[in-house]
Amino acid sequence: MALIKHCWVLLLVLVIAFALQIIFFSPISPDILELPSATSSVSVPPSNNRLQKVIKLGEGLLQAPEDVAVDEKGTLYTATRDGWVRRLHRNGSWEDWIKLESSTLLGIATAKRGGLIVCDCEKGLLKFTDDGVTVLASHVHGSEIRYADDVIEASDGSLYFSVATTKFRFHDTHLDLLEAKPHGQLLKYDPSTEETSILLDGLYFANGVALSKDEAFLLVCETWRFRCLKHWLKGESKGKTEIFIENLPGGPDNINLAPDGSFWIALLQVVTEGTEFVHTSRALKLIISNFPKASELVLGGIKKKATVINVAADGSSIRKRFDDPNGTVISFVTSAVEFEDHLYLGSLNADFVGKLPLK
Ligand SMILES: [Ca+2]
Ligand SMILES: [Ca+2]
Predict the structure, then answer these.
(1) What is the pTM of this model?
(2) What is the pLDDT of residues 27-47, one digit of tens each?
(3) How far apart are the CA of 127 and the centre of ligand 2, in A?
(4) Which of 17, 115, 152, 266 registers the highest number of CB atoms within 10 A of its CB?
(5) What residues make up the domain containing 299?
(6) Residues in domain Strictosidine synthase conserved region (predicted)?
(7) pLDDT of residue 1
(8) CATH number at residue 252
């Protein structure tokens, strides 16, 4: 009897030790993820397979081109996982333009006086020109900028850019989702003073940024909140922030202004179908975060489909929706840029840039 009792005590001690290990050594301190409401005021068009019609540009040459930008001459730029920024000239030829030792180049934007602004998760905000690479911003208020995600240039030369999370690195993105806390920021780089300041703090994975056609407001997407915020830069609401669109049918990644003033947003399947329960249990999150394969477990569904939407200039409606519902041709689309009646699509799970005719 004494032996059985000892065994039970030992088992209890082991269970307590295991639980303490999980709680104290977990890399996260999780909150519950707020999922989009089923009773949204914005109606969502039905899923379709329009994205399966994409033409593949630069197939095999481009490793996971997250973002795409087109300059005034019609040259298309993209940054890939091997550190290359490549460009496609109007004559159809690809050029290996500039290479950087980095696997974490994300959002890009063309600069009006030439060159390309590039976000790097490790180095910060960079400028690429024919002469090479310059670091524009590596710190804000004394802290390293670690997860610069997307950028846009205003006509006065100011650069607005997002920091997805100040807590986790690129390869630990799944931990930021599991933690579900607002570690994101929206920053501004002023070229006249070369200083960087914090415009907004406490964002749920700050991702795509875009300016309205008249530059009266700035949009920033919060991927883990299924919404995009509007921050006024001009007019009587200047300095105020409000919701632009919410309850999106996916986590918004990059956002781009369309020629007609509307916006293209790439939506990510951040909550894998059938695993919603993971995001509502703190205990489960603590356990999962300890596993080496946690990323696959949590974000595996992101590579299984692609969705792009077009949202009205005032955020009041979703006007168009294109999908590849099972990722047959393209998946994990992170960016959609409209240029001369075509959409150009970036993806973190493709070896090409997708081109979709809009007419
Ligand atoms: Ca961009
Ligand atoms: Ca992004």
Answers:
(1) 0.94
(2) 999 999 999 887 777 899 999
(3) 17
(4) 266
(5) 2-357
(6) 153-236
(7) 67
(8) 2.120.10.30
